[in-house]
Design goal:
Shape: elongated
Number of helices: 7
Largest sheet: 9 strands, antiparallel
Number of strands: 9
Length: 236
Amino acid sequence: MAEENRTQYVAYTLYRVDPLWRRLPVDERAAGKEAFAEAVADWAGRMELRSYSLVGVRPDADFMLWKLTERYDDLRELGADLNATPLAGYLSTPYSYLAATKPSQYFERESPRHRRVVPRGAPYLVVYPFVKKREWYALPMDDRRRAMQEHASIGSRFVTITNHTTYSFGIDDQEFMTAFECESPEDFLQLMMTLRETEASRYTERDTPIFVGTAEDIRSILDSLDGAATRVEAGS
């Protein structure tokens, strides 16, 4: 099977650190962070794995891992390795989403490469689960295709934003996972305000919670959890 036709599993896991962890001795926290970062770095050599900070943005999540792989068991094995680290005892996962790639039924001329998620490395990643109203699926296919083509046409005008929509039917609670790489959160705000006026938007059932992550090395993110990076800068 050609690489571009293989299914990719795409997962987004949101982590929150227990405030009790910040009361541990500095050396104990440092060791836990290092073990977690080493596990992430090891897996980044086996699959596409990117980290994003949400520190100071949401009260219910501190950072996010974006995972892409053609081997479903990678997700489970990565989770087991992270659970084996000392830091895992102080982490919860308030949100975790799973999706997969597939050809769109609305764009007949879609090229195989557009069926794969290829991160471009933008500074921000906006992620949210998406569910359409049941009435949407009762519309004739031609009507749905026209609405989605209008939706995509408007989105294409925002050249600083890359859309990575994947499918969760039957494998998670939402229908789609939508992820957008962008140069700034303001760009995405303008896109969403514009898309609210499209026909397809009338059939949105749910598109929250929304997470805006800043691309950052996992060690830097972990140091921000207890202010270690700030203390180093202040003492330098």
